Amino acid sequence: MSFYVYNTLTRNKDEFIPYKEGKVGMYTCGPTVYNYAHIGNLRTYIFEDVLKKSLEYVNYKVKHVMNVTDVGHLQSDGDEGEDKMALGASREHKTVWEIAKFYEDSFFEDCKKLNIKRPTIVCRATDHIQDMIDLIKKLEEKGYTYVSNGNVYFEIDKFEDYTKLANISIDELKAGSRIEIDPNKKNPLDFVLWFTNSKFSNQIMQWESPWGRGFPGWHLECSAMSIKYIGEYLDIHCGGIDHIAIHHTNEVAQSEGALGHKWVKYWMHAEFLVVDSGKMSKSTGDFLTVAKLEEEGYTPLDYRYFCLQSKYRKQLVFTFESLTDAKKGLKKLKERISSVLISIDENDIVNAEKTSGYKEKFAVCISDDLNIANAFTVLFDVLKDDELNNKEKAILVEDFDKVLSLDLMTTQDVDSNVDEELINKLIIERAQARASKNWARADEIRNEFITMNIELLDTKEGTTWKKK
Ligand code: AMP
Ligand code: ZN
């Protein structure tokens, strides 16, 4: 079966053919650890998690590498603005190292709650300074760099096809990135590889280098670490769409400049999560976190389910109303699954042909550039299918949850506030249905009681009930 992905590089849904058969090298840009991850960031990480699990579902062996940015990221994503880590440190009166540790830990706690699997390798920028220096040396040997006012720059005019990923003209790129005039640059789009003589003279994170004491430019870490851990040929590189024009464009220039050949085969980008007021921004401090959603009574998996309801390439508008709808939807789905799970008959025989047919259908959906909406339709078809017994249904739900990761096999807690009025109404309706030999309705009501974890007791005095 072929797997298709939308490739930013070709602007096309391409068939996925990795460099090495059966294996995937995947690199995803990780968090800048100067504040909590907001739910917009986490939408991108959920997309990447689903992508990885989908590839694994269709039997690829995936090596997933993700960086943690703990140095060099300025407010602008380019070479302007304040250092994000230093800003975090002064905001909280802590050292940059304390800030980095705290927010890295909190990021992975959020990921855990959202069932985002930890990458095969997580690598911090500050642990890879030598790899970055070596990459600059290579670029220097090949004539891509110049030193100006103490900083080392990448000269984009030396790199053929600098705009191929962004797919727009140099002028549009310049206009889009609103670059401050920097007299040290030959071309305003040139970018810093190594800062030595910048405005951050009191920067705490500094290292020795052939060009003087300083620190690396932000883009460099992703090129250096992905080449180190995955090699010179990378199958998939992901991130949010904001990274296309600057960060990923600069990564391509650095990596392909140093390697002398094409580097990434498939670039995949998640669209933004937006709120009514526009983009959710970490730097303004005005954003929603997983902890905030929990405070408001939502579970992290409600949010995962909310994200899975829309295509990763479409902008997603966040409102609490739509999150509430997702919460209700997930609850209903889990209740339906719970009623299957508690009614499994151990003597049921599993028909492998029937289950593998559904697995195949599910695989076709996720292989179509992650068509998760259709994948959910397959799940609902399974739950509705009278030809499947409960054991077969449970096997399929468990299998699909390898990708969806919504804890579908954990039985739904029934609200502790039992709706007595509803129960009494249903008991009367069940008695009427039985009296009129409407066995279908009587069975339906019985199933509703199973879902609610309510046991009925038929006695001489009538029907009573208790919670199981
Ligand atoms: P950062 O920690 O700012 O470097 O961003 C981490 C990831 O989140 C990157 O892949 C960004 O492209 C992505 N991102 C940033 N803002 C949003 C948003 N509002 N919606 C979706 N992804 C985002
Ligand atoms: Zn990156």
TrEMBL record:
Assigned EC number: 6.1.1.16
Protein residues bound to ATP: 282
Transmembrane stretches, start-end: none
Annotated keywords: Aminoacyl-tRNA synthetase, ATP-binding, Cytoplasm, Ligase, Metal-binding, Nucleotide-binding, Protein biosynthesis, Zinc
Ranges spanned by the short sequence motif 'KMSKS' region, renumbered to the chain: 279-283
GO MF annotation, one: cysteine-tRNA ligase activity
Co-factor note (free text): Binds 1 zinc ion per subunit.
Motif ('HIGH' region): 31-41
Domain tRNA synthetases class I catalytic: 18-327
Alphabetical GO biological process terms: cysteinyl-tRNA aminoacylation
InterPro entries attached to this UniProt entry: Cys-tRNA-ligase (IPR015803), Cys-tRNA/MSH_ligase (IPR024909), Rossmann-like_a/b/a_fold (IPR014729), tRNA-synt_1_cat_dom (IPR032678), tRNAsynth_Ia_anticodon-bd (IPR009080)
Subunit structure: Monomer.
Family statement: Belongs to the class-I aminoacyl-tRNA synthetase family.
Protein name: Cysteine--tRNA ligase
Organism: Clostridium tagluense
Native organism taxonomy: Bacteria, Bacillati, Bacillota, Clostridia, Eubacteriales
